[in-house]
Amino acid sequence: MLQALAADESRERIAVADLLDALGDRALAALLFVFAIPNVLPMPPGTSGLLGAPLLFLAAQMAFNMRAWLPAVIARRSMARHDYAALVRRIAPWLVRAERLMKPRLTPLASGAMESVVGTVCLLLALVLVLPIPLGNMLPALAICLLALGILERDGLWVLAGFAAAAGAAALVSGVLWAIVKAALYVIRNAAGAG
Asked: In sequence order, which residues have a C-beta less than 8 Å from that of residue 52 and are 6 or more positions away?
């Protein structure tokens, strides 16, 4: 679906609303993946802030079992079709490999009430993603990607992998925050001692 949209030469730009329309009932999980994957790849600074807002909206909708919807200010955001096509080319090999590994299994972990649990975890991860925390982007984004793919393909094994990555992200981010707090306290103590 993503490649078909990238190949549509009748479009100069691809808007978020176009992705919503193209993905239909699979839009929530698919868009969570689409907005999270650039944060796993090396991208320019500020990318997580730009892509974080849609992730927050989408994850909240999954958490509350709502239909995919984004505010007009986000839905109208677009990129040139050739830039979108380049992004799809970068992620397509990963998607092809992932699809070979995924299949419906342990489906109770990837459907029904578990979708709300996954949505809640993705919402917490998206909150971390938008914060300017050093090293705080890649692992939460990877966890969101794994969870989204698990829901998309009804593969509970991938959901479990996503939960494991989320736990790793929580440990990493809390460690980084603790180090920042300790460093700030050290600087304050030294400044107070010197004064």
From this structure: 126, 129, 130
Dihedral sign, Cα of residue 11, residue 17, residue 20, residue 21:
negative
Unique residue bearing structure tokens 């974080």: 52
Percent helix, strand, coil in the chain (nearest 5)? Answer: 75, 5, 20
Gyration radius from the chain CA atoms? 18
The 10s digit of each residue's pLDDT in 24-71 is 777 889 889 888 988 887 766 666 666 777 889 899 999 998 888 878
Predicted TM-score of the model (pTM) = 0.78
| Contacts (Cβ under 8 Å, ≥6 apart) of 85 | 6, 7
Terminal C-alpha separation, the chain: 63
- Check if the beta carbon of residue 102 is closer than 8 Å to that of residue 149: yes
Q: What angle do CA 37, 39, 40 make, to 5 degrees?
A: 65
CB-based contact 32:59 (threshold 8 Å): yes
What are the residues facing 80 on neighbouring strands?
13
Cβ atoms within 10 Å of 43's Cβ, excluding its own: 17
Instruction: Give, in order, the Cα–Cα distances in Å from 150 to each of 13, 21, 118.
Output: 29, 21, 10
Concatenated DSSP letters for 108-129?
GGGSTHHHHHHHHHHHHHHHHH
Instruction: State whether the Cα torsion 6-156-151-161 is positive or negative.
Output: negative
